[in-house]
Amino acid sequence: DSYMQEIDTLQCTQGITDYHDIRITNEGNYIIQSYDSLYVDMSQIVEGGHPNALVKNILRIQELTSDHEILLDWLALDYLDVANYTNLNLTNNQFSFMHGNSIDIDEDNNLILSNRRSSEIIKINRITGEVIWIMGGPQNEFTFINDLLEGFSKQHDARRLDNGNILVFDNGNEHQPPKTRIIEYEVDEI
Q1: CB-CB neighbours of 139 under 10 Å
Q2: Which residues pair with 156 in a beta bridge?
Q3: What is the pLDDT of residues 47-98, one digit of tens each?
Q4: Chain-centroid distance, C-alpha 24
Q5: Which of 171, 167, 170, 157 is nearest to 187 (CA)?
Q6: Strands 94-96 and 53-64
């Protein structure tokens, strides 16, 4: 409050709550993220996969009311096929799956998530949790037109602008040569 007295503590109901981003909705709800780790039989998922791999940093997004009731509980492994993440070493006995670093509420009330680990932006249905689209990364569904670097790399802070475009802070770690930039994309979601 205005006297610097703590009035509430926010955390996801599972996993380790992450500090990267939080959204407070017009209704007073909170959208926050956490990370879980699970042992997964990756030998059933990819050739040469470890039978008891520790999959770390499995992103969870939760929307909670001001009374801490769960409205959305999105766990990445429930909606994304880890086998499609060919940029990760899926045969190791342990690996990190995701690094969510921004959450935005889109103009249609769904969520836009930045996953830095795989250089992708994911649009998520805020009611069902289903993935609407993926931009960038190993599961890219878009063609980058008029972008000399053909997309972003290890980005931060994907946000929908009032004009409908998406603004991205492109860290550019994997561009050759590495190049950091701010880039605005006009997105044809159809």
Answers
A1: 18
A2: 169
A3: 999 999 999 999 999 999 999 999 999 999 999 999 999 999 999 999 999 9
A4: 17
A5: 167
A6: parallel
Nearest to residue 112, comparing CAs of 136, 143, 84?
A: 136
Q: Measured between alpha carbons, how far is 28 from 76 in angstroms, rounded to an integer? A: 25
**Token pair in block for residue 87:** 């940029």
Question: Do residues 112 and 123 touch, judged by C-beta distance below 8 A?
Answer: yes
Residues in a beta bridge with 40: 53
**Cα–Cα distance between 109 and 180 in angstroms, integer?**
30
Taking only the tens place, the pLDDT of each residue in 104-160 is 999 999 999 999 999 999 999 999 999 999 999 999 999 999 999 999 999 999 999
Cβ partners under 8 Å of residue 132, min gap 6 = 110, 123, 124, 125, 189
**Length of the chain in residues, anyone?**
190
Q: Where are the beta strands (DSSP E) in the chain?
A: 16-24, 30-40, 53-64, 70-75, 94-96, 100-105, 111-115, 120-124, 131-136, 156-160, 166-170, 181-185
* Sheet strand arrangement including 181-185: 156-160, 166-170, 181-185
Indicate the residue type of 66: S
